[in-house]
Amino acid sequence: MEAQGYFEFEREEWQKLSKKAELPLTKTQLAGIKALNDRISLGDVQDVYVPLVRLLQKKYADFEKWNQDKLDFLQVPVKKTPFIIGISGSVAVGKSTTARLLQVLLSNWFSDLKTQLITTDGFLFPNAELEKRNLLSRKGFPESYNMKALIKFLSEVKGGQGQIKVPQYSHQVYDIVADQFDVIDQPDILIVEGINVLQLPANESIYVSDFFDWSIYVDADAELIEKWFLERFGVLLDTAFHDPTSYYYKYAQMPREEAFQLAHTIWRDVDLKNLEEFILPTRFRADVILHKVQHHVMDRVYVRR
Ligand SMILES: Nc1ncnc2c1ncn2[C@@H]1O[C@H](COP(=O)(O)OP(=O)(O)O)[C@@H](O)[C@H]1O
Ligand SMILES: CC(C)(COP(=O)(O)O)[C@@H](O)C(=O)NCCC(=O)O
């Protein structure tokens, strides 16, 4: 991949930086990470994420200093404003795993800092609204999100407001869950994960990324992502889809091959299309690109110059 404007690190070079990083992982921390997803390679955590978190720490220190200097100069009362990290990439590339891993690492290593996480799924229009707008088959595309609400949320968080409610999306029910919310309450660091976070919607004057202090794009070849999409589908087919409340319950009732054929069609007609048209074009807006190969192994890291 030709990534102009970025420093490019092969994994071997990047991992050397972790030698300088004095962030030893305790057994408890490792167990916590394994509990998150038992297929996560602890090698990746040590070699890739430790230098990443160290770099992030430097950026955070810079952010804190600038905020303090700004407030001192302007002589305005101190109001806590969070450092916001955006994480983007295709459906099924591993964004939420990366986001949760970062949250665990940041919470462990910087225990005096409060790190919270949201996913932009919560800002999808509910199915009833998508249906009204004839967008049910466009779930995940830019027009299926309530971007105004997402931007309002981000400006409230940045403004230091506490106790902000974020709607919850259920992958099980395949819809926004009425009356269920996550509460974001003046974190020091907020991670915002979603396929749309680096997009520039045509009809908004402010973009989601205007609120980011740091952003990451998780990248891999589309053929591999399809494989991960189908693997995740297979796991869900054996577990969650057996629940009659699952949107995909009908898939668990049909022959396995037929269910996989349908999943392949969803990938090709919806998620791959979305990746090619709307997600991949935002890759070079990120501060860091994490590139993955087979088995989710991180082989290269790009850092904006
Ligand atoms: N580092 C990793 N190691 C092993 N499996 C992973 C890793 N990251 C993601 N996965 C798996 O890949 C699939 C997609 O990951 P997920 O985080 O759900 O993606 P996204 O949030 O981008 O849709 C899941 O089955 C997840 O368990
Ligand atoms: C809700 C989503 C748009 C969000 O994707 P995510 O951020 O979880 O990767 C996606 O999971 C989705 O439902 N896409 C529509 C097509 C499909 O069922 O995969």
Automatic annotation (TrEMBL):
Reaction(s) the record says it catalyses: (R)-pantothenate + ATP = (R)-4'-phosphopantothenate + ADP + H(+)
Keywords: ATP-binding, Coenzyme A biosynthesis, Cytoplasm, Kinase, Nucleotide-binding, Transferase
Enzyme Commission number: 2.7.1.33
Subcellular location: Cytoplasm
SUPFAM superfamilies the record matches: P-loop containing nucleoside triphosphate hydrolases (SSF52540)
HAMAP family per the UniProt record, alphabetical: Pantothen_kinase_1
PANTHER family reported in the protein's UniProt record: URIDINE KINASE
Family: Belongs to the prokaryotic pantothenate kinase family.
Protein's UniProt name: Pantothenate kinase
Gene assigned in the entry: coaA
